[in-house]
Records
---
Amino acid sequence: MAKTLAVTLPHSLGAAEAKRRISSGIESLRQQYAAQLTQADIAWQGDHADLRVGALGQTINARVDVGDDQLHIEVDLPWLLQKLAAPVQAFLTRKGEDTLRLTKG
């Protein structure tokens, strides 16, 4: 059974700018890890994205919801990858905060 990780990050960018940054960040990660991924599909519908990533012989489903003042990410980790839950959650939080930061630095 899959374990769902959830990360909610506040921001003050508005939905359109946050979505632009998150979309760009997801594409950058997809390119950076392309050699390790067997699949990386992203489907945006408004401010909601469904992601399906194949890695380590497993399929990982995720959802991203961009709001005016927060970003919500949910990732379903298959049972074989559940031991990686804490590092995955920390990675999502760090990357999300970096992507949403108003000024780099």
Note: The longest strand covers residues 37-45.
---
Amino acid sequence: MSLNNQTFLDRAVLAELKKWLDRKEIFALLGPRQSGKTTLLRVLEQWLKQEKKVKPEQIVFLTFEDREILEKFSADPKAYVKSFMAQKTTERFYFFIDEFQYLTDGGRTLKLLYDIFNNIKFIVTGSSSLELTGKTAKFLVGRVFYFHLWQLSFSEFVQARSAQLFYAYQEKNALVKNFLEQEKNFSLPQTDIFREDFKKLFEEYALWGGYPEVVKAGDAETKTIILKNIYDTYVTKDIIELLKITDYAALKKLTALLAAQIGGLVNYQSLARDAQSYWQEIKNHLTILEQTYIISLISPYSTNRATEIKKNPKVYFIDIGLRNYIVSGFQDLSLRPDLGSIVENIIFSQLKFKEPEEYGIKYWRTIAKAEMDFILPKKESVLPLEVKYSSFDSPKISRGFRGFISEYRPRQAVILTKGFWGELRLESTLIKFIPAWYW
């Protein structure tokens, strides 16, 4: 099924933006390039006009990718903003500023404007957290609400594809969510009539990822070209123009090396050797890739036991489609030796998309190589999560999974499968086997 390129794909964060829009705090909408931030601003603009009856002249839309606008704004921000208001100091204005990261000293400038203009709601977007949550954040304490707009989650992807399947997805996902958040047990479904439908969608998502324009494209060639353009634009706009990195060839080489080892431990010395770089540059480039929303690193879970790994992070890509483009990997998943790593990466992305700041996702691995894919902190416990995208005849667990449960005695644990529902109790731990797509 293909979608019209003008179709707006419903995004979960839109409801949050509307909910808090009457407050004075600045909105900073962060996320990868081409995740739909500009489109979302336009939708919010139309909602203000149509539903809130805001006059068009009270909504100002600027993009700092326009060099003329950026130069005028930078020269005198206060005068530039006032020029749109025509002495209307009692009416409420909305300033949408796209690609805000191009403004030098943006945090200080935004603080000044926020403090001067009590009748303006500033909503800014950025594709680099280096500018909006890094060095400029100190100026905006107490003045800004941060929101993330990622690529489409699998839930949003299903919604874009089929209203019928989305309804079925929500029913099953609610069972999983209540089990995790409220420890509410549920009976295993006796039949899952949409199993093959979800498997097909999940494996499409596993190949192409969730960039909105990729999702809307109707054929593989177009999807590939869009991913190429996204990656090329990232290199030219964020790496060369914004961050002024001259040795971008080394960073691209590092990105390719990381794409080939998703879900693996980061070995700085090995990466430095293979990228023909050095340890400190590798560290710096990893920071850049992470803060421009290409990769994410997770650290090991440890309680200071001598047998557990404590240092090296694991690496994942935010969007699996972009990763597959980098490794030229769009072959049928059934033929892929990296299938397990791909699904593990997808599950990581879904975790990050849900609660990027709160989840504190970890992994667990011992020196003896017993491991757990993900450890999620809970109020009084932890939740171990393992991805086993393979066929099950009956519930079974690995030695590493058993070892973690014996050591930490969590109340719940989850194994994500290729369509299998199941349940197993080990000591005091209830283990649920859940199809990966319902996560």
Note: The CA atoms of residues 222 and 324 lie 15 Å apart.
